[in-house]
Amino acid sequence: MKRLCLLLLSALLAAAERPVPPPGVAVSAADRAELESGLAKLKGTIDVLARKEGVNPLQIADVRIFHDAVQYALEFNEFLKVEEIQRGKDLLRRGQERADAMLRGVLPWAGQTGLVVRGYVSRIDESVQPYGLVMPNSWTPNSPHRWRVDAWFHGRSETLTEVNFLHERLTSRGQFTPDDTIVLHLYGRYCNANKFAGEVDLFEALDAVRKNYKIDPNRITVRGFSMGGAAAWQFGTHFAGQWAAIAPGAGFAETAEFLDVFQKEKVQPQWWERKLYRLYDATEYAANLFNTPVVAYSGEKDRQIQAALVMEREMKKEGIAMTHVIGPDTQHRYHPDSKIIVDRKIDAIAARGRDPYPAHVRFTTFTLRYNRMKWLIVDALEKHWERGRVDARIKDDRTVVVMTQGVTGLSLHFGPGGCPLDVSAKVSVVIDGVPVSVAPPMSDRSWDVSFAKAAGRWQHVTAKPAGLTKRHGLQGPIDDAFLDRFIFVKPTGSPMAPATSAWVKAEMDRAITEWRRHFRGRPIVKNDTDITEADIKSANLVLWGDPGSNQVLARIAAKLPVAWTAEGVKAGGKTFPAGKHAPVLVYPNPLHPAKYVVLNSGFTFREYDYLNNARQIPKLPDWAIVDLTTPPDSRWPGKIVTGGFFGEKWEYVAPPEN
Questions:
Q1: Rounded distance, CA 638 to CA 628, Å?
Q2: How far is CA 620 from CA 164, 256, 337, 595, 624, in A?
Q3: Fewer beta carbons within 10 Å, N or C terminal of the chain?
Q4: Contact 70, 92 (CB under 8 A)
Q5: DSSP code per residue over 535-575
Q6: Distance separating alpha carbons of residues 316 and 327, to the nearest angstrom
Q7: Across the chain, what does the average pLDDT equal?
Q8: How many whole angstroms separate alpha carbon 437 and alpha carbon 379?
Q9: Phi, psi (degrees; rounded to nearest 5) at 527
Q10: Which residues are within 8 A (CB) of 559 and not within 5 positions of it... i.e. 6 or more apart?
Q11: What letter would DSSP give residue 474?
Q12: What is the C-alpha to C-alpha distance for residues 607 and 600, in angstroms, rounded to an integer?
């Protein structure tokens, strides 16, 4: 009876949340037949192009964006309004025109100015992702000029399917179109404030733009409004060293305060959730804005002015006075006069460009996912999710002074022509007051040196530490595994505890569905019996099932810090009975430690969190034990009875007592 009540409660919770994206309208039989015919024709031409010599995948992606947009909308009931059906037909026509042109050996859109849509193939899941461009009238394909790029992040829209994104990018120039500037409109994998796979989208799209156009790497700005303003704060603080300027408008900059102000929601996070706020809370990274110019905008009467105010507060603590343009008597939009002010400021900053090798850098981080600022790289932290700080300054042509807090490994990297130090004599790097003598730069003015802290003392090192250590791209939590190529590995054997198999299947099916809905791709799925050595070396493996049902998991089970046997799940000195519990975790793959394995989890935020982007943060740490007698709901995969973070060498660390 208790279990039935819990199931009913879970169903009620799920029903209370509106679906994101919303369900679509009915498509008539005639329209469906026309769309399916157009899809089949375009798919046939794409297949011919894929076999044609001299056609590369990036070029085919420029065609596939049209096919996949309509395919998703038709297959998953995502024509959200009647007029979108005609948009789908128009996109198929455009896609077919491109495909036919490619068959003739020409790419007219590649030399086009104005509004252009293109695509790339993501390494994460092999999906084709679209992006939009506003190409300036002054641009020509053969010009030697390198162009400024403004990356623009869109606002929240639960209806921004690929069909609607492509339609907008073919009909609207957007908020800002500076002269002699390529404006890159990111899709961001839909509606996630450019987090997780939406974060990777920016860098993959920029890579595609670099391959297609000549751009100036020192004149890239990040800009956005509303949800896009939140994205600009996120990219601005985490990757400050990469941009010429940062221009967020409205949005949110952290989770807890924003939810309180915006919708009177008092968050009550688990202890690990509170730590994981430090992944995407831009307020925690305010010190990094020392390294890059910032121009924030808010409407005077916009509730989302809160984002700029909390960033202004945190920047002030770091000794930085924030430039804040405020639209007078304005709600949630740009004031026309303020737009001019913002544009003039950003134009002036972009004209000067980014300095990749300044004499002084400051950096703060809580995770090695974000580990670089200009010529400084943090290689190791004392403890993840606690603050690490570095202040590095070139004192003179033979001395670099570095001060650290919470950091145990760092590198200084200057590319060719970048290092101002004397090439003819040894250099002294003074770290936390202790001088360490190292070789000078090379004759091309490049310089790479690394240091590690052992027994409280910094030393020059020339090799990576032996054994497992948390490092950039291999530091957790679970959600981090979905920022690179991953494969879902289905079990085909007999489970040790049959009672868990229904939960495993339901969570796996849900993860496949929700990845498609919220990160707009189809996960690569393989049976455990079909996983190859190439898969192990190229992808993070998401292993579903238990050591009895999943062959790959059986191979590595004894090498994981959380044990899973027929008797139960053992974490530290505690054992949780079999059949009622399952572990979820992320860990370096014992078969190839450069990649992750994940047990029984997709991305960890769920339906309740879809309704506000500020909630879309990791909900689980490196590992957790799930009580399966409590059904999954819109927040959790079951009752989380315990969980925590592995240590800096990926060792088991007992979680704090509740």
A1: 6
A2: 33, 17, 45, 19, 7
A3: N
A4: yes
A5: HHHHSEEEE-S-TTT-HHHHHHGGGSSSEE-SSEEEETTEE
A6: 22
A7: 96
A8: 20
A9: -70, 150
A10: 590
A11: B
A12: 18
Q: Quickly count: other Cβ atoms within 10 Å of residue 571's Cβ.
A: 24
pLDDT band for position 497 (50/70/90)? confident
The tokens describing 554, both together, are 């059986």
User: Which residue has tokens 């860990």?
Assistant: 587
Q: Are 576 and 568 in contact (CB under 8 A)?
A: yes
Burial classification of residue 319, based on how many CB atoms lie within 10 Å of its CB (0-12 exposed, 13-18 middle, 19 or more buried): exposed
Residue 396 has which token pair?
């003179």
**Tens-digit pLDDT profile for residues 403-448:** 999 999 999 999 999 999 999 999 999 999 999 999 999 999 999 9
Tracing tokens 């790959």 back to the chain, one arrives at 552
pTM, two decimal places: 0.96
501 pLDDT higher than 60: yes
- DSSP string spanning 288-331? GGGGS-BEEEEETT-TTHHHHHHHHHHHHHTT-PPEEEEETT--
Half-sphere exposure of 478 (CA within 13 A, CB side): 25
Taking CA atoms, 112 is separated from 135, 149, 208, in Å, by 7, 16, 16
What is the pLDDT, as a whole number, of residue 658? 61
CATH 3.40.50.1820 for the 105-352 domain, yes or no: yes
State the CB neighbour count (10 A cutoff) for residue 611: 14
Cα 264 to its chain centre, rounded Å, is: 28
Backbone angles phi, psi at 400, to 5 degrees: -120, 130
- Give 16's pLDDT tier (boundaries 50, 70, 90): low
Task: Render 154-184 in DSSP notation, one character per residue.
Answer: ----TT--HHHHHHHHHH---S---TTEEEE
Nearest to 113 by CA among 175, 168, 185, 181: 181
Instruction: Say if CB 168 and CB 183 are below 8 A apart.
Output: no
- Helix or strand or coil: residue 428? strand
CA distance 171 to 483: 31
Cβ 234 vs Cβ 248: under 8 Å: no
* Identity at 428, one-letter amino acid code: S
d(CA 141, CA 41): 31
Dist. CA 329–CA 302, nearest whole Å: 9
On whether the CB atoms of residues 192 and 613 are closer than 8 A, the answer is: yes
* Domain range summary for the chain, segments of one domain joined by +: 105-352, 385-461, 478-644
- DSSP class per residue in 100-168: HHHHTT--GGGG--EEEEEEEE-TTTS-EEEEEEEE-TT--TT--PPEEEEEEE----TT--HHHHHHH
What span, in angstroms and rounded, lies between the C-alpha atoms of 494 and 505? 13
Fold of domain 478-644: Chitobiase; domain 2 (3.30.379)
Angle (nearest 5°) at CA 48 between 46 and 49 = 65
- Tell me the helices (H) and strands (E) count for the chain, helix number first: 14, 28
Tokens of 651: 């060792």
Contact 130, 162 (CB under 8 A): yes
Quote the CA–CA distance of 43 and 516 in Å, as a whole number: 20
User: Does residue 115 contact residue 148 with C-beta atoms inside 8 Å?
Assistant: no
Distance from C-alpha of 389 to C-alpha of 555, rounded to nearest angstrom: 40
Length of the chain: 658
Q: Which residue is listed with tokens 């910032």?
A: 294
* Token pair for 331: 């709600």
